[in-house]
Write a structure and sequence with these properties.
The chain is α/β, with parallel strands linked by helices and 119 residues long. Helices cover 40% and strands 21% of the residues. It has one domain: Response regulator (Rossmann fold, 3-Layer(aba) Sandwich), CATH 3.40.50. Helix 1 links the parallel strand 1 and strand 2. Helix 1 packs across helix 5. It comes from Deinococcus marmoris.
Length: 119
């Protein structure tokens, strides 16, 4: 069982992910903006973060760079979940330190398979 942090500015995307994870042993923590990510990581200590790329205030890439400076995030894996699916987007996301990149739209099976690979 893993604790998974989901950060997406779209409530429907968060709902889709949490519904897909229902019935698994995973515990989900959700945020609808990137402002509270550091505090959530420090208090919840998730093993995995599913991070949207396109968000107001601070995008997913900037959020991941901020998390890399956070001792509480050490060992936490980050997967970008985004509609930005061009090869350059995926390569850039991986260069920022993500372990994987899931392109929207995706199926619950794709999400669960990806999570199984990383936790």
């Amino acid at each position: 069982m893993a604790k998974i942090l989901i950060v997406d500015d779209s409530p429907s995307d968060i709902r889709f992910m949490t519904e897909a994870l229902k019935g698994t042993a995973h515990d989900c923590v959700t945020l609808t903006d990137s402002k509270g990510v550091e505090a959530a990581v420090e208090s919840e200590r998730p093993q995995l973060a599913l991070l949207d790329v396109v968000m107001p205030e601070r995008n997913g890439y900037e959020t991941l760079r901020a998390l890399k400076k956070l001792p509480a995030a050490e060992g936490m894996k980050v997967v970008f979940v985004s509609s930005k699916g061009a090869e350059t987007d995926v390569k850039w996301g991986m260069r920022q330190g993500a372990v994987d990149y899931l392109i929207k739209p995706y199926t619950p099976e794709q999400l669960l398979s990806l999570i199984a690979r990383h936790v």
